[in-house]
TrEMBL record:
The keyword Ribosomal protein applies. It comes from Xenopsylla cheopis. The lineage of its organism: Eukaryota, Metazoa, Ecdysozoa, Arthropoda, Hexapoda. This is Putative mitochondrial 28s ribosomal protein s27. It comes from the Eukaryota. It is found in: Mitochondrion. GO terms for cellular component: mitochondrion; ribosome. It holds the Pfam family MRP-S27. InterPro entries: mS27/PTCD2 (IPR034913), Ribosomal_mS27 (IPR019266).
Amino acid sequence: MFKVLISQTCQKIINLPASNICCRTLLSEAYKCSTSWNNRLSSPIFQKVDPDKLYYELENNFGPNGKATAIDVDIYANSVNNIDHLDSLADLLHKLRLSRETSNTLDSTSHAVIRIFHDLGEHNELLTILNDRINYGIFLDPFTSNILLDHFIESKDFTSAAKIASMLMLQEDFTNDINKSLSLHACLQYIQNPTPFEPIVEEPVVKETKPQGKKKQEEIRVRVRFLRNEFFDDHFDLRDGHLLVGKTLHMIGQNLGMNKIGNSCSLLGLVLHKKFEKAQEFIQTIDKNSIYDEARDSINTALNTVEINESNQQLIDSLKKSVQVLSGGCGLYENVETMVKDSIAKQEPLDITEQEKLHEEWNKIREEKLQAQLDRFHKAKVIAESEAKLKELEDEERKLWFFENEEKLDLEIEAKEDFYRKRMVKKKKSSKAIDEDYIP
C-alpha cells in the first residue's frame, strides 16, 4: 500500500475538502427512469407471476428432462422484488449459464438483475456476480454502470467504483461519455487511497515434519475442480487492483486523445499497469508540459514501490529521470470534475430518452418471445398427441388384421431372428480373434 506524494505546488488543490474534490449530486433522480422501468409490472405477464412458485417450477425444469428457457429466467428476474428472492435469482442465473439456453439470454435480464440488487442494497453480492462472468453471465450496460458509479462515488466507496470502471475496461466499452468521465474520476480517487480489490488470503504455514525411521512418506493428493492454463492474457486474467485500474486509466486516456488529461491518464495507467517500456516510449512522443503535476507525483509514488532487480533497474532509473522533467501544472482533479459535470449535462437527457425507449422495446420483445415459446410448446403438444393417436390406431389395425397378415408377421419375426443370430455369431468370432503381434 502506498501513499500519494504531493508536490508543494499542488498541495492546496489536493488538500481541498472532500466535498470539493468529489462531485456531489452527480446524476439526477430522473436518470433512473423508475416510472418507465416499473411500467413493465403492469403487463399481464407479471400480474400472474408468483416468484416462489415460478422459482420451484424453473428449478425442476433445469433438470435433465427440463425445458427451462432464457425468457423464463428473464420473467423471474423482472418479477423479483424481495431480498429473500435474491439467492434464488443467483441460483437460476448460474443454472441458465450452464445450459444451452444461455446464448438466448435477453439484455433486459442483466439490467433487471443489476437494478434489483442495487435497489435492495446488496452491492457486495452484486459485485461478486458481475465479477464472475463465466458462472453468471451478467454484464453492465451504459445505464446500470452509470447508476452504480454514481452510487459508489457519492458514498465515497471508490474501491467499488473502480471495480465497476475496470469491468467497463474489460468489456472495452467507454463510448458513453458519462461512463468515461465517472470511471476516470473513480480511478483517480481510488489511487489516492487504494485498497485490494479482493481480500488477501493468508496461506497456512505448513510445518515440515521429519519422517520417523524408514517409514515411507505418504503422498498427499489434492482434488481440484479444474486446472487453468499457464497462459496469461493480461486482460481477463488480471486480478490485482493496481493493474486493473492502470489498464482502465490507459484505455480512458487513449479514448480521450492527445490532450493534457488524456496524456496524464495514459502515462499514469501504463506505470500502474507496469508497462514501463511503453511508458518510456510514450514520454518521448509527448510534450513535457502535457502531464499534470498530480499525475506525475502519482507516477513517482508508483515507481518508488516497484521491486528493483538487475533486469529492471536501468529501465526504472531511466523512467524516473524522464518523469522528473514533466511539469504541466496543477488542475487534474478540477478539470476531471468539470469533465464529469459537462458530460452529465450533455449526455443525461439523451440517456434518459434512450432508456425509456429500451424499456418499451424490452417489454415488447418479452411478450413476443413468450408468445413464440407458448406457440412452440402448443405445437409440440399437438404433435405428441397426434403421434400417440397414430400409434394407437396402428396397434388397433394390427389387431384387427392379424389373421390376414399372419404370414407376413411370421416372415418379419423370422428375419429378426436371423439378424440377431448372425450378430451373436459375429461377436463370438471377434472375441476369439488373437492378435499375432500381442506379447503377454
